[in-house]
Fold:
Amino acid sequence: MSKFWSASVKRLTPYVPGEQPKLANLVKLNTNENPYAPSPRALAALQAEIGAGLRLYPDPNSEHLRAVIADHFGFSADHVFVGNGSDEVLALVFQALLKHEKPVLFPDITYSFYPVYCGLYEVPHKTVPLTDAFEINVDDYAQPNGGIIFPNPNAPTGRLLALGEIERLLQANADSVVVLDEAYIDFGGDSAVPLVKKYPQLLVVQTFSKSRSLAGLRVGYALGHPDLIVALTRVKDSFNSYPLDRLAQAGAAAAMQDRDYFETTRRRVIATREKLVADLAALGFHTLPSGANFIFTRHATRDGAELTTALRDRSIIIRHFKTPARIAPYLRISIGTDEQSEILIAALREILG
Ligand SMILES: Cc1ncc(COP(=O)(O)O)c(C=O)c1O
Structure:
């Protein structure tokens, strides 16, 4: 710890991202990336952006990209905020909308970046336990709060909360912001975006990293009432005027306009997931129902950490969380191609003897 550090930096507990190993021939199923390339239209838009224009700053307000996203969902652009990955959008959300005297509520098992943002921005928070079946019970959130946030589907469980339950939560919680982190919604759930028109306290956050195969470009966005968007923009313009570069704005807009490619690739991922779940069941795994591009699965008798290490020895990387104790038996496996699933199943068959 350096004597030059600010006191607040000494207190931080940073998030640890899944590793990005440089090894060749790895079956990489650890960070929920899409196994398919970005849309060819997105790649062409990126190529077209490479030129002398890069000497100029990008549009600080990402007007074109926001208009494309707004159009896609049937909103006006004043309902849309964009950021450098949904991680950045979420960070700004914690600072702009969730920092109050009362604690922000989120599940005990969820995206582990949320408590990190609370630490960074000194946001009081309280965790609400998932049920024994790893489900969110919206009645558990009927308590004083400075906001509510969770992913739907939740991470790392993959479990989806039905839209009717979300609406019940919104009806019971009108006085603080409800943030739905829909990073994985395109792989099996109904988005809450249409509810934005009805509930001014609802903010829905999505990303280009998963269903649009652009994790490397870093683009995320939020849809909500213009009042919420103004708060986010105020914080953004107090931090970085240009969070999205010219390539990111152009590539993301083109990706969103390529609806056919999006439909084809997300359906492929869903089909691969369903087959993988069935193949794992035949090997003695129990998998939680997943609405995401990953699954959360445990073997009837074998330890989660041990299986993760044994897979790693065979160049297959998945994610394992040691804590909290009740998820330690589980493996979180990102959905790859059918071929990657076959390699995984063959390796598990060998490991399990
Ligand atoms: C639940 C959840 N939200 C948000 C993110 C951040 O995604 P990105 O910053 O790539 O948009 C992730 C990434 O894995 C995630 O799992």
